[in-house]
Specification:
Blueprint: H1 4-17, E1 29-33, E2 36-39, H2 40-48, H3 52-55, H4 59-82, H5 89-113, H6 118-131, E3 136-145, H7 148-159, H8 164-171, E4 182-187, H9 193-201, E5 212-214, E6 217-228, H10 234-261, H11 268-283
Helix pairs in contact: 1-2, 1-5, 2-4, 5-10, 6-10
């Protein structure tokens, strides 16, 4: 979910609010601005708040950018306080909003992100895999040529016992000719329609007896194997499965809170848009 960067900051904010700080020895001072110390914990928090482009920088450059941002803040914050900007109504409103948002994010991390168990992930994975319709996949090779006559001549050579792989290497115009025209395994929807229809109609170990025309030219296709498509292993799709579980947990928390608290939106147009957005989110 797109919340991860925010959640990292929320975790630190929550720790600070609860008075949980690093021990002196594990939270060293990394810089000073006048008499104000900047500790590693504050630098860590600043790193999580960097712009996404800066997050991709090498670690040392990222630390330097974060430190620069913290120093900039420290240099001007006292002047801002002297001017009483902390007492401005708009400023207070923004601080209240940011506080609520970070509390929301800390709650989200505790009850959604950190609440997902390995058992839940495995159970949801099994459920999702069971719901996927079985698909057949084929392993094929092909020889691509420009004209129908060339394709027919190749089929005659195959009928005479010539090697499909050697013919592909010698005569195919496809970039994969050096691999003997190997296309690996593929399911329906991966190839152009004419090619797909011909490939899936073949029995294992057979080749097309007539040229197959497509937008690329004329194909001679050999199917080497057919099998049910294996589902992706859990390790490969675990992040996506976790996101499904987190979505469900989050929506359940919101539903419970709405029922307990109630939500009223006075603007009819805004209410309609809000309701439609909620339905779309639940349908995902």
């Amino acid at each position: 979910m797109s919340r991860y960067k925010t959640l990292a900051a929320a975790a630190l904010v929550a720790m600070m609010a609860a008075g949980v700080a690093r021990a002196e020895g594990t939270d060293p001072v990394v810089a000073k601005v006048g008499d104000q110390e900047i500790r590693q914990s504050e630098l860590d928090l600043a790193i999580t708040s960097l712009d996404p482009q800066l997050q991709r920088m090498p670690e040392e450059q990222k630390r330097a950018a974060a430190l620069s941002a913290v120093i900039d803040v420290k240099l001007l914050v006292k002047d801002a306080e002297k001017e009483g900007l902390q007492n401005d109504a708009t400023f207070k409103q923004r601080v209240a909003f940011l506080t609520e948002r970070e509390l929301h994010n800390a709650f989200f991390k505790k009850h959604v992100v950190d609440a997902v168990t390995k058992e839940e992930v495995k159970a949801r994975y099994d459920k999702e895999i069971a719901a996927i319709p079985a698909q057949e996949e084929v392993k094929a090779r092909h020889i691509l040529v420009k004209t129908e006559d060339e394709a027919k001549a190749i089929i005659k050579e195959l009928d005479a016992g010539k090697s499909f792989v050697e013919l592909a290497k010698a005569k195919s115009t496809d970039p994969n000719k050096d691999d003997g025209g190997d296309l690996g395994y593929f399911t329906k929807g991966r190839m152009v329609p004419e090619f797909e229809t011909a490939a899936f109609a073949l029995e294992k170990g057979t080749y097309t007896k007539t040229p197959v025309k497509s937008q690329f030219g004329f194909h001679v296709i050999l199917v080497e194997d057919k099998r049910p498509q294996a589902p992706p292993p859990l390790e490969q799709v675990e992040p996506q499965v976790r996101q499904l579980i987190m979505r469900d947990k989050y929506l359940a928390l919101l539903d419970t809170a709405k029922k307990a608290t109630g939500v009223e939106i006075s603007d009819p147009a805004l209410k309609k848009a809000y309701d439609e957005a909620g339905k779309a989110r639940e349908a995902q």
